[in-house]
What does this fold into?
Amino acid sequence: MNEIKIKSKNLNVYYGEKQALFDVNLDLNEKEVTALIGPSGCGKSTFIRCINRMNDVIDICKVSGNIEIDGVEINDKNLDVVSLRERVGMVFQKPNPFPKSIYDNISYGPKIHGKGETKSELDEIVENSLKKAALWEEVKDRLDEPGTGLSGGQQQRLCIARAISVNPEVILMDEPCSALDPIATAKIEELIDELKKTYTIVIVTHSMAQAVRVSQKTGFFHLGKLIEVGKTEKIFKNPDNKMTQDYITGRFG
Amino acid sequence: MNFVLIFLITIFSLSLFFYGRSKTKSISIEKNIKLNALPKFYGYYLVLWCSIPSLVFLLIWTLFEPVIIKSIIIETAANQGAIFNDKNEANLIYEKIKAIYAGTYFGDIDTILKESALSYAKFINLFTNSKIVLIFAIVIASVIYSLKKIKNNNKARDDVEVILKGLLFASSLIAILTTLGIIFSLLFESIKFFSVINIFDYLFGTNWSPQRAFVRDASAITAEEYDELKDAFGFIPLIAGTSFIAFIAMLVAVPIGLFSGIYMAEYASVKIRRISKPIIEILAGIPTVVYGFFAALTVGPFFRQIGENLGLTVSSESALAAGLIMGIMIIPYVSSLSDDVINSVPQSLRDGSYAVGATKSETIKKVVIPAALPGIIGSVLLAVSRAIGETMIVVMAAGLAANLTINPLESTTTITTQIVMILVGDQEFDSPKTQSAFALGLTLFIATLVLNYIAQRAVKKYREKYD
It folds into this structure.
């Protein structure tokens, strides 16, 4: 078992009057893929958006409780979210490349954080990020073409490369394959397998099969509560909770 | 008379609706057949058939009646010995005849006029009577036709659709034809102007003083007179003044409008937005004349005062004052349009930027604005064409002297202002001075058309990106 990287304690999230998460206590292990499953609206996305404080963007969202990364509290007003997000990257449900060239899409993050001061350093970061995202071979001859011109699967790998470009420790993935076809999905899953050697990955997914394929640990959310968490194998073969059993066998959700 | 007719036709058509509806219902019950459409469609069908042909006829008749009567009357007057040398004199006599008929003519009435007025009265009567008869005939014919149709259980729903489609098409046709009419009237008058003044003298001349051509008949200008006139219609000072004032206006409107648009779209809370957006938009609702007051009475003298304190000579009518106020007037256009385009940049792009650790202002500067740029350019170009077309503020605040200058403290003038000045008051319609207004109008029209076209292309290009 790897060491614990992220630890949430009594995490509660409210959107205005509505409570979206109830006392979530969840530990995520380093250099491992944790899958979060559950029906729509159960709070899995809300949970991962707490890890890089993306919920700050939403005015009415209030977060209480604790999240620690490497033992340091991040749900703290005084925390610098810029450096937090440098450490915790994110990939979204729908590929969202900037309407810029492929090169600029990747170099955007490093430039913001003052990495890659010379052109050659930047070139290297771009090349490495694209290689890690398994996209380099496909785009190396057309780095100055717009990122929006790539196919859906390529766009999503571009977004993964963009997340990698600032050299994070954690990558959050919010249903990264839900807008992709099966072949593109397979490529992304392969990539996730590779990336977990370097990064701690949290993936939200609606596909049970995907959770089984890519993750080592699985958490099941329902109505804002973490119902059960454990080794992926155990959750899918022999869950403790009746609700988990019903969900993974497709009886509700 | 026409109003009574329109009223009667309308009332009658509407009552036919109820008749058609109940009639078809009873037909379907009596003969035990299934109607091809709901009963109300038969009602609509009758209404449309009864009203449209007669109203269209009435419209056409009303348009052509005066023209026809006029030509008949002028001809009878001529037959009776009235003498007129050209069209204008003929028109004059016709107006006299009309005035006699209306009882508002107080001059001497000779026999020719008297006879003509009598025949005018006769024709008016004849035309009015035949109009009424024809309209009744049309109404009866179309009602009989449509009643026969609905008794045969026609496909009233489809027929109503066809008629409505025709009506909508006719409306758009009217809009297009009106536009074409405006363009052609501009074009023809401009051609008259350019047949007197060489187009190159107009486009590249640097002196604008059209009053020199006052009361000169365009068709009778001699070669010597032309030499004297040809440098009176130089377009350069006007386009320079127009662009200069528009430029000053944009210097004010683009940064303030854009920044307030960014604030509204990205930073303002829902509450602030709800209050401040309407307030900014009120600026767009202030009549330009009021801006003109403000520019002429407050801002102009203010600059003059400052200038005097600094030892500069400032005209109380200055390009700076006009441009500044015009800029303020345009702020809401830029701000509201750029607010809209910035809002339509998908949130996912902002999320992508935040997720790699960019701050809000970095995100706006490097992702949101570039993505919204074509739309922003479009809004700026629309604002420019608004600035170029603006008249009132310039009339009141920038003066009328066509100075070719780049000193913002001097008075200057614009195309629209000159058009106003040329056409205000009594004018000889065939003097080159008056005709030059149309040439200016045409030039302005082409300039704004090009700007609008570019603006729309830019906005369209932007839309394609995210749909």
In short: The mean pLDDT of chain B is 85.
